[in-house]
């Protein structure tokens, strides 16, 4: 798989067209690479196979809302850039065009976008969702793409992919995560929701309580699920372990933690993994985070949480 980064502000067209080859191109932002996105990308792969040419994806970074909306709080992603590239690669595409979304890129007319970012890349067929837009203020639509193409390429429009009569979307998946519905979010994604990060030193309170934890510092701006206690799977050094995680602000001990922490207590595990890059897979939300009155109360609740987690794992993981 070949990754080609394109930056309109620091490259001229000859630089990115130098890498071009005949392809079928799936276009979209693709945060999460969820089931709807997968439908678009698999259609492109199938079309490419029929034509005997490469299957390519064009995605963008950062999110247009970050560039045009200038949000006060930085956006969080289901799949930050590196994670998204891994997901796209796993689907079996041959190349990825990663286009930096900048103010100057946002000002391209629909025709300029088609000419410079589709035709110049030797694209023979485009696949995108029905609601994909392009060009300044999203003025270009899929219904208009044929006119802009002017018979230089063909295209397919993928209609709305739904679950329970509701569109599968990145926004919907974020809402499910914010409500703690990690099982539903994973179903809509088509794979378990995970956060990648590094195990860092914490305050060692878990060890004193008899429930040592791995403190995971997210590697990027992942969308962290609702605060509370979860059953999790934990991946480190190529191995998978089960455990429970607290996502939150540690109100018993801390008054003003700026970001939610992710602390994982692993079952049947006693290795030193400080500095390791790990993945936390959220399986089931079991209770809200709470403030305790003392050490004994905390230990009693953690014991109950572990029993709940082990019972859920026994009933649901085979």
From TrEMBL:
Q: Does the keyword Iron apply?
A: no
The pathway entry for this protein reads as:
Cofactor biosynthesis; FAD biosynthesis; FAD from FMN: step 1/1; Cofactor biosynthesis; FMN biosynthesis; FMN from riboflavin (ATP route): step 1/1
Q: Cite the CDD domains for this sequence.
A: FAD_synthetase_N (cd02064)
Which BP terms in the Gene Ontology apply to this protein? FAD biosynthetic process; FMN biosynthetic process; riboflavin biosynthetic process
Q: Which UniProt keywords apply?
A: ATP-binding, FAD, Flavoprotein, FMN, Kinase, Multifunctional enzyme, Nucleotide-binding, Nucleotidyltransferase, Transferase
EC code(s) of this entry? 2.7.1.26, 2.7.7.2
Q: Which domain of life is it from?
A: Bacteria
Question: Which segments constitute the Riboflavin kinase domain?
Answer: 188-314
Q: Which GO terms describe its molecular function?
A: ATP binding; FMN adenylyltransferase activity; riboflavin kinase activity
User: What reaction does this enzyme carry out catalytically?
Assistant: riboflavin + ATP = FMN + ADP + H(+); FMN + ATP + H(+) = FAD + diphosphate
Similarity-based family:
Belongs to the ribF family.
Purpose:
Catalyzes the phosphorylation of riboflavin to FMN followed by the adenylation of FMN to FAD.
Can you say what this protein is called? Riboflavin biosynthesis protein
> Which classification does the entry list for the species?
Bacteria, Bacillati, Bacillota, Bacilli, Bacillales
